[in-house]
Design a protein that fits this description.
- The complex is a heterodimer of chains A (66) and B (267).
- Chain A has 66 residues and is mainly beta.
- In chain A, 12% of the residues lie in helices and 36% in strands.
- Chain A has a 5-stranded mixed β-sheet, with no helix packed on it.
- In chain A, a hairpin with a 2-residue loop joins strand 3 and strand 4.
- Chain A is globular and about 40 Å long.
- Chain B has a single domain, classed as Alpha-Beta Barrel (TIM Barrel).
- Chain B is 34% helix and 15% strand.
- Chain B is built from 8 helices and 10 strands.
- In chain B, the strands form 4 sheets. In chain B, strands 3-10-9 form a 3-stranded parallel β-sheet.
- Classes of the chains: A mainly beta (66), B alpha/beta (267).
Chain lengths: 66, 267
């Protein structure tokens, strides 16, 4: 499926959960927060939340700032 | 003089009245040393898209000393909607705590970096309703400050001058009006350039300061963090001590009578 991840188009395997996406990206889930189509996906739901074609995804973490 | 009370923000108590940022340091070790030197108990952090190309890069959180309260900000947001989404993501990033403190910052344009009052207020109302403890960055407009307080914000954080400008407190009279009416803590956020700026704000009676660039971009950030700590404490103490009134003419501190060669004292 095709999705948008952090503003960039990306081709992802199917089916895929949020947990699967983070594993695919090599990212540890406790360090990031995930938003799918404008809504935060709680960490407890990462394993069950299925992604779909056309999803707009944001994966964020804390960085230095004022 | 009785011991000073703590800075209390939405029920959380801080002995230090200085909050510091974690941006713009040349490296993490310098940042860590400066954070420790500042004596701050709360540090701001930003929420950004994960750099997917930079896997395994040292995490910011690893370099923030244990026990420091994180204050996620919405820096870089130009609409209420983006700021609200950023806060929801920050809540998900925070370890524990269903009622996180957030620094709400909604900017108007990238050149002035001045806050957009309308969008800030709109975001504050939504975030308060969603259970956030909101610390809004705002202009030094006393009317807007009152509206943010009425919206349920846990503090108001007027600027001293634009972000990163280092111009110091440009309008002490507006700040005094905000202070006179506010029932929540007033924290000066942005504009402090050096220690005297910090002291001037604290002498006026603000509850605290939020400083990033002035420390991070100083030639010696660790020394400047120490200077800001001392200035914050000195300014606070001077405020509590009660300064003398300003007078136009001189007022001698030594007795004027009994000077040699003068008139004899009459008995």
């Amino acid at each position: 499926m095709r999705a948008t991840l952090n503003g960039e188009p990306i081709e992802l395997p199917e089916p895929l959960t949020v947990s699967g996406l983070l594993a695919h990206l090599g990212v540890r889930s406790e360090r990031v927060a995930v938003e799918r189509n404008g809504a935060v996906i709680k960490r407890a739901r990462h394993g069950e939340e299925q992604l779909a074609d056309g999803d707009v995804l944001e994966v964020v973490s804390f960085v230095g700032g004022g | 003089m009785a011991q000073d009370e703590s800075l209390v923000l939405a029920g959380r108590s801080f002995r230090s009245r200085l909050v510091v940022g974690t941006g713009r340091y040349r490296d993490f070790p310098t940042m860590q040393a400066a954070l420790v030197a500042s004596g701050a108990e709360m540090v701001t952090v930003a929420v950004r898209r994960l750099d997917l190309a930079a896997k395994g890069e040292a995490s910011l959180l690893h370099w923030i000393p244990q026990g420091m309260q994180l204050l996620p900000n919405t820096a870089g947001c130009f609409t209420a909607d983006d700021a609200v989404r950023t806060c929801r993501l920050a809540r998900e990033l925070q370890i524990g705590g269903e009622r996180p403190l957030v620094k709400l910052e909604v900017l108007s344009d990238p050149k002035t970096l001045l806050p957009d009052g309308e969008e800030t207020l709109a975001a504050a109302r939504i975030l308060v309703k969603e259970g956030f403890d909101v610390l809004p960055y705002t202009s030094d407009d006393p009317v807007l400050a009152r509206k943010l307080e009425d919206a349920g914000c846990a503090a108001v954080m007027p600027l001293g001058a634009p972000i990163g400008s280092g111009l110091g407190l440009r309008n002490p009279y507006a700040l005094q009006m905000i202070l006179e009416h506010a029932k929540v803590p007033v924290i000066v956020d942005a504009g402090v350039g050096t220690a005297s700026d910090a002291a001037i704000c604290m002498e006026l009676g603000v509850s605290g300061l939020l400083i990033n660039t002035a420390i991070a971009c100083a030639t010696d950030p660790v020394a400047m963090a120490t200077a800001m700590k001392l200035a914050t404490e000195a300014g606070r103490l001077a405020f509590r001590a009660g300064r003398i009134p300003r007078k136009l003419y001189g007022n001698a501190s030594s007795p004027l009578g009994g000077v040699i060669g003068g008139e004899p004292a009459r008995s």
